[in-house]
Design brief:
Layout (H helix, E strand, L loop, with lengths): L4 E5 L6 E7 L9 H12 L7 H4 L5 E4 L1 E3 L5 E3 L4 E6 L23 H7 L6 H7 L4 H17 L3 E9 L2 E2 L9 H10 L7 H16 L6 E8 L15 H10 L4 E6 L17 E3 L11 E3 L7 E2 L2 E2 L4 E7 L10 E3 L6 E3 L10 H24 L4 H16 L5
Antiparallel strand pairs: 1-2, 2-6, 3-6, 4-5, 7-8, 7-9, 9-15, 10-15, 11-12, 13-14, 16-17
Helix pairs in contact: 1-5, 1-9, 5-9, 8-9
């Protein structure tokens, strides 16, 4: 059973998004500036629409976090409640949120309206909207405060947009210097040459009144060996990560390590050979190293000491500047799809969301294995485990 979990509530044009995070140990230092920085990154990126000019996302802690005399905010073991106010709050004004009976292809409109037996797509689109991903980023960034205190870091970026892509290789030696390059780029790609080609494709889609999708990639560095489990399907960390990524709005594919490419290669070119380096005995790998990381840091549903590598595929935004054909749910007559304010591409934001939902799953697996009601206890449990693992075989 997961120790760490979160629940979100709120609609795209309601008064606020609300997040409840349960399971954090007491004594975790909460870096509010970092969480707000991640929310700001989610709002950025080339190709975004007008909504991002309206909102200025920032967290308000409603419960579970206390400001101590030393000026530091920390958890104290209670559920953490967070709100992110919506400036574009108009759901209670019928004139500003009229019924929508022409479902938009690619959205949840048709399926949701029929599921809840209504011809008004409004309620479905308000909750299914990608505005909800701000909540996921807030929960994920809070979990990253936990991960970073244990030397676990994440790095996400845009790998491709349409046909334009980067071949840049990410590893433990270069990712930190690439953070600045990524953050200075308006497509969140750490390869300026490739980013230029991606930007040109998005611009072409804008001129064509079309939209663009792409692939985002996330690396997690510093995971202890053995997070997750091979003993049950629900315990497998790769499955938990895949579910988290696929639950992000507009994501249609996920792969770990080589992913689908592994199916086209012989086993000798896929599996990562194991070596032992005594000089790295005190590192998270416990001295067990690989010549490659095709498994993406996960074998048998567990972390293996190598960086976790995940890619997610986001489809093009479903709302186009030239509406697609649809049907009026009231009359069944052919109509153009309804239109709501939208982006040309949200791939940059998608990378931020994916990085943070993956972080949350890693944090959950960390607490699942090492437990503890306080940070002091969790840290002691991790240190004890690694000491025992380095001492194998036990006498």
């Amino acid at each position: 059973m997961s120790r760490l979990r979160y629940t979100t509530a709120g609609e795209s044009h309601g008064p606020s998004l609300v997040i409840l995070v349960e399971g954090l140990p007491a004594g975790l230092v909460v870096d509010t500036d970092f969480i707000n920085h991640e929310l700001k990154r989610r709002q950025g990126g080339y190709g975004r629409g007008g909504r991002q000019k309206i909102e200025t996302d920032a967290v308000n802690f409603l419960a579970g976090v206390r400001l101590y005399a030393d000026g530091v905010r920390r958890t104290f073991g209670a559920p953490v409640a967070i709100s992110i106010p919506n400036k574009d709050n108009r759901l209670d004004d019928p004139d500003k949120t009229p019924p929508l009976s022409q479902p938009r292809p690619g959205h949840a409109d048709l399926a949701g309206s029929l599921k809840w037996l209504t011809t008004d797509c409004r309620e479905t689109l308000e909750r299914a909207s990608a505005r909800e991903t701000a909540s996921r980023v807030a929960a994920g960034a809070l979990s990253r405060c936990l991960l970073r205190s244990f030397g676990i870091d994440t790095f996400g970026f845009v790998r491709s947009v349409g046909p334009a892509s980067t071949a840049i290789q990410i590893h433990a030696r270069n990712w930190r210097e690439l953070v600045r390059v990524r953050d200075d780029d308006d497509l969140y790609c750490p390869d300026p040459t490739a980013s230029g080609a991606m930007r040109a494709f998005v611009q072409q889609m804008k001129q064509d009144k079309d939209t663009a999708g792409g692939v985002v990639e996330c690396h997690v560095f510093g995971c202890p060996i053995g997070l997750g489990s091979s003993m049950s399907g629900p315990g497998r960390l790769d499955g938990r990560i895949a579910q988290a990524v696929m639950s992000i709005q507009a994501f249609k594919g996920v792969e770990i390590g080589l992913g689908f490419e592994a199916s086209r290669l012989p086993g000798s070119k896929v599996h990562d050979e194991i070596f032992f380096d005594a000089d790295k005995r005190d590192e998270r790998s416990l001295g067990f190293v690989r010549g490659s990381n095709n498994a993406g840091g996960l074998e048998g549903g567990m972390t293996n000491g190598m960086p976790v590598v995940v890619r997610g595929a986001m489809k093009p935004i479903s709302t186009l500047g030239r509406p697609l054909r649809s049907v009026d749910l009231n009359t069944r007559e052919a109509k153009e799809a309804g239109w709501e304010r939208s982006d040309i591409s949200a791939i940059s934001a998608a990378g931020v969301v994916m990085e943070n939902v993956i972080a949350f799953e890693i944090a959950d697996a960390l607490l699942e294995k090492f437990g503890g009601d306080s940070m002091t206890e969790t840290r002691a449990n991790l240190e004890s485990f690694e000491k025992l693992a380095r001492s194998l075989p036990l006498g």
